[in-house]
């Protein structure tokens, strides 16, 4: 489990490509301070397992399913990536529930500076629409962000200066692909509502709203 609060920008120093798989070598500093074999690390929002490590970097494998479903297949040597260690039980929860199980990808279609903010508009698959609401949460390349505008398949987010400096998201250009994980709670609520009638137990949007869930 992650929070979407990126800890460090890492760099891909080596990448081995299979037909639909990858072996990544990622250089970093903070992530290595308490790393262990088998640890889960969020790499651009994708939960990967530490396979090897040394004092400068760690290695992780990307299996075919992840290769096909995420933007990790767009990485190359030198790419900057967002990194986050799994959430510590004794730490503050600064973002939102992020599993590292990416729902799919989106495409950056616009970016604009407005005073100290960077506005980015991203086009998502139509199937994501039920999970998107104004002022709701979303993880983009592993970064916990607020949806400032939802219009059809397009969402707009705003990066404050700290987020611009501390994540690799601000380095992305129009046309680039990003990993998207929709809000976990929204997905569970949608799943419950879509259950067959005999399993709903009278769960409706009105009932959830009346009881403070949405």
TrEMBL record:
InterPro entries: ATP_synth_asu-like_sf, Lumazine-bd, Lumazine-bd_dom, Riboflavin_synthase-like_b-brl. Its EC number is 2.5.1.9. Gene3D superfamilies: 2.40.30.20. Pathway: Cofactor biosynthesis; riboflavin biosynthesis; riboflavin from 2-hydroxy-3-oxobutyl phosphate and 5-amino-6-(D-ribitylamino)uracil: step 2/2. GO terms for biological process: riboflavin biosynthetic process. It catalyses: 2 6,7-dimethyl-8-(1-D-ribityl)lumazine + H(+) = 5-amino-6-(D-ribitylamino)uracil + riboflavin. GO terms for molecular function: riboflavin synthase activity. Lumazine-binding repeats lie at residues 1-96, 97-193. Residues 1-96, 97-193 form the Lumazine-binding domain. Keywords: Repeat, Riboflavin biosynthesis, Transferase. Homotrimer. Catalyzes the dismutation of two molecules of 6,7-dimethyl-8-ribityllumazine, resulting in the formation of riboflavin and 5-amino-6-(D-ribitylamino)uracil. NCBIfam families: PRK09289.1, PRK13020.1, ribE. This is Riboflavin synthase. It comes from Lederbergia citrea. The gene is ribE.
């Amino acid at each position: 489990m992650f929070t979407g609060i990126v800890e460090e920008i890492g760099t891909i120093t080596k990448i081995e490509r299979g037909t639909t798989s990858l072996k990544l070598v990622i250089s970093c500093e903070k992530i290595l301070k308490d790393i262990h074999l088998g640890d889960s690390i969020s790499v651009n929002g994708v939960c990967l397992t530490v396979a090897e490590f040394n004092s400068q970097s760690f290695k992780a494998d990307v299996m075919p399913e992840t290769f096909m479903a995420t933007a990790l297949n767009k990485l190359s040597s030198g790419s900057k990536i967002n990194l986050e260690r799994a959430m510590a039980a004794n730490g503050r929860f600064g973002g939102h529930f992020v599993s590292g199980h990416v729902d799919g990808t989106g495409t950056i279609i616009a970016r604009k500076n407005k005073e100290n903010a960077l506005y980015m508009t991203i086009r998502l698959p139509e199937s994501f629409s039920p999970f998107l609401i104004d002022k709701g949460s979303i993880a983009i390349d592993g970064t916990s962000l607020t949806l400032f505008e939802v219009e059809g398949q397009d969402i707009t987010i705003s990066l404050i200066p700290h987020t611009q400096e501390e994540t690799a998201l601000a380095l992305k250009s129009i046309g680039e692909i990003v990993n998207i994980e929709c809000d976990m709670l929204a997905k569970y609520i949608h799943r419950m509502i879509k259950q067959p009638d005999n399993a709903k137990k009278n769960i409706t949007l009105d009932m959830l709203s009346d009881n403070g869930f949405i």
